[in-house]
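The following record pairs a protein chain with its ligand, iron/sulfur cluster.
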Amino acid sequence: MPKITIDSTEIEVEKGTTVIQAAEQIGIDIPRYCYHPGLSIVGVCRICLVEIERMPKLQVACYTPVADGMVVHTNNEKVQQARRAVLEFLLINHPLDCPVCDQAGECWLQNFYMQHGLYDSKMVEDKVKKQKALPIGPNVMLDSERCILCTRCVRFCDEITETHELGIFNRGDHTELLPYPGQELDNKYSGNTIDICPVGALTDKDFRFRTRVWYLTETPSVCPGCSTGCNINVHHNDHRPYKAGGIRVSRLKPRYNPDVNQWWMCDEGRYGFTQVDADSRIVAPQKKTRGDWQLLSWQDAIDEIATKIKGILKKHGADAFGVILSPQMTNEGLFAAKRFFQETLEVENIDFEVVAREKGYADDFLMKADKNPNSEGAKKIGLSAVDNSGLEVAQMLADAKDNRLKALYICHHNLEKGFKKEEVKEALSKVDLVIFQGTNQNSTSNLANYCLPSASFVEKDGTFTNFAGRVQEIHKAVEPLGESKPDWTIFRNLSKRLGKSMPYFEAGDVFNALAEEVDAFKGLSYEKIGEHGVLLNGHRASTEKEMGALVA
Ligand code: SF4
Ligand code: SF4
């Protein structure tokens, strides 16, 4: 393995490593615009110039492979001067509209100017004008004047999505990044071009002018949009007091995980978080009285529901009780539900899968047809009808229709996704007690007798298990809306009211209890999950399998 010296530190690296990568390994961050570790190397922006002893000119660090005995200087006077010159060149025609640019605060032109530029402008000539605020796709706006022609977005569309919508057109100072004639930047992953654009040339239609980025706090989490479980950061504005109808979550950004999504996420997941602040949120326990919803305190809701459950079990037995859990729930919510329904109530009719009539979009990159984040967790915890020798969801609805089922506890589902509207309506109308627990109202919640408000994925801690058996943590980014609570807390409170305490105070307590009891989770602990997740027992680390074609 070649040994090289970078800024007086000696390091041994794999053959083929470039200077920029070797420097990263010892914590030296060489400035870059065009270089991105997930894309091919083109060496066009020249900001990463470094001095390599015995080479006549400065070299681009992103393109130069290390050689044994190489001595590199990444920050001497000669290098700093070159960086200033590159910045001066890039800014010749830049509009400097930072005060109205959404990228301000996270712009690499601003940052590098402050770190390495700090020269006085010599420009007296008029700047070349280009197109501004040009919509180039459903999610992306282009400001051509701000583009520094690094080609990251072009390479993303050529190499990652292979959709080839973007190109560089014209020559000299009229060179411009644009979609090909007649094309739009409209692929399933288009939002990633905004993330990797180092300047404010590509901005997000959904985020533009909403908030300044320095007001945002980021909380690590996992996308609940499908069973891949892409790692994300939730960006939320905690400086603005929440008013009813306001927006707390500003945007989702992908978070690097080499085994799951690398640097990327799909647009469906990126823009699919609007339900967390939607008007349809259930914000307090409520019961339907003569067709109208009436708000209840948690105490009253738990008391009334517990009393009714007790009455039904006493009169009709546990076979008259059906439970439909959801793969939208965390492992903790599902495990607390299992303990409550199986141990406290001794109910066996538990299932979690409602097979959607229409399958979701899937590809061989990240997106999966299963639009739930935790189907694998639900299976491993043993919550399917097969595991419990109880009724499947379809059979529960049939039994309800025939008056054999007297109580249904439904978590998160909209049953109309799997069954005909009239069938669901008829079945639920025949059941004495229908409890709906979830984050948002839907046509199923409207048919319930009681609605209990669940905290959404940005309002609680917990874990999801992705399709490959990787357990990953979500974290509370904002306070639960209204009176909503994590699912496991609701089951714990109901269980206590019905005579069986569960000693859980935090999501970690539930996870650790789950890890003691369920074989697939044995040996894991909440504290050991870490930022990239851990695999369940019996699941091999399988990067190729988890990432589909990403590494092919
Ligand atoms: S739009 Fe952004 S990512 Fe694309 S070439 Fe210009 S600066 Fe680079
Ligand atoms: S691929 Fe799935 S998990 Fe990843 S961002 Fe899209 S919806 Fe979310």
